[in-house]
Design brief:
Layout lengths: L9 H4 L22 H11 L3 E5 L4 H12 L11 H9 L15 H10 L4 H9 L5 E9 L2 E9 L23 H14 L2 H17 L6 H10 L5 H7 L10 H9 L8 H10 L2 H5 L1 H8 L4 H13 L4 H17 L3
Parallel strand pairs: 1-3
Antiparallel strand pairs: 2-3
Helix pairs in contact: 2-5, 4-5, 5-7, 6-8, 7-9, 8-9, 9-10, 9-11, 11-12, 12-15, 14-16, 15-16
């Protein structure tokens, strides 16, 4: 890993999700997942003061979760129960975080540090699976003290015209879902060549096994996590994308999983027309990944935002990281 020669600041390095270079302003933990023991300490602190409830059919699962998270050591990897554990942790810290900053997705890195104790196939199975439950997150106040709340339910929320999908980590769990995939990429990048070759073969099989229908997000995120092999992104960029559907997350994942801007021109063209919050969140990642060659993509995204009808304050907030990234490379 080489040292970056750009004039990064601590604030701009904090905007990164993946570190391809080193810099004196890198945040602590930027280049490796925490150890399982450190991850468990972080997770126990996160889940120490929340109110968690569950549907009667999930009461046994909740009782097991409470026993496990009261222990001093993390439980052994259990592919059949990992989604419950992830929901229990991330559901308790789902509010009040901004995914754009490295520190804000520390919970995902801690969760990933425990997940990757499983074999590559089991980890990917967990990350693309749909849980047999839904979650509802929030907070309540008493005597000026806020308590986070989490409800595990065997039924979808009733306030929506169409029931949302159940809990899953590839598509529906807010903006923080991406943190787990970035964290998996940290793990994958740390593997030696032999271990990576084995894991990568598993990733190819898992991604192709998802098929063409209804799994575009999951396939793109596997490509992102396994960007060490750019053929994942190349294959996905050659597939058709659905018409009239927002595929911004997919376009970003495949762009940042590609070896060059030119090889991901399809994503660049998408953001020339449909720029929005998604690419703003990774503006500095484009610089870290592609350097000065990212300028046309950033410029196109800025132009698209300027042309769109939206709240002026929102436009300003979305343009700020794009313009800051351009300034970093003299664009």
């Amino acid at each position: 890993m080489t040292a970056s020669k750009l004039k990064w600041t601590a604030a701009t390095r904090e905007q990164l999700h993946h570190f391809r270079s080193t810099h004196g302003k890198d945040p602590v933990g930027a280049h490796a997942l925490p150890t399982p023991s450190d991850a468990w300490a972080q997770i126990k602190a996160l889940t120490a003061a929340s109110e968690v409830t569950a549907s009667p059919s999930l009461s046994d699962a909740l009782a097991r979760l409470r026993r496990e998270f009261a222990a001093d050591e993390p439980p052994a990897f259990d592919a059949a129960f990992e989604l419950h554990r992830v929901a229990y942790v991330l559901g308790q810290c789902a509010t009040g975080r901004e995914s754009a900053r490295f520190a804000d997705w520390a919970p995902e890195r801690a969760v990933a540090a425990l997940l990757v104790r499983g074999d590559s196939k089991s980890v990917l199975d967990v990350l693309v699976a749909s849980a047999p439950f839904w979650i509802n997150t929030g907070s309540c106040w008493s005597n000026d003290v806020e308590t986070r709340t989490l409800a595990l339910s065997d039924q979808p929320p009733s306030e929506f015209a169409e029931p949302p999908p159940s809990f899953r980590l590839s598509e529906t769990f807010g903006v923080w879902r991406d943190g787990l995939w970035w964290a998996l990429r940290m793990h994958v990048d740390s593997l030696d060549d032999a271990a990576f070759a084995s894991a990568n073969a598993t990733a190819h099989a898992a991604r192709r096994g998802l098929g063409a229908d209804g799994s575009l997000d999951a396939r793109a995120r596997i490509a992102l996590a396994y960007a060490r092999d750019p053929s994942h992104a190349s294959e996905e960029l050659s597939r058709p994308w659905p018409e009239g559907v927002d595929v911004g997350d997919v376009a970003v994942s495949l762009l940042l999983a590609s070896p060059t801007i030119a090889s991901a021109q399809r994503s660049v063209e998408y953001f020339s027309t449909y720029a929005g919050a998604t690419i703003s969140l990774v503006a500095y990642d484009l610089i870290e990944t592609f350097g000065e060659s990212a300028a046309p993509a950033l410029t196109a995204a800025c132009a698209s935002l300027e042309a769109r009808k939206m709240n002026a304050g929102l436009r300003k907030s979305l343009l700020k990281p794009l313009q800051g990234a351009l300034k970093l490379i003299g664009g």
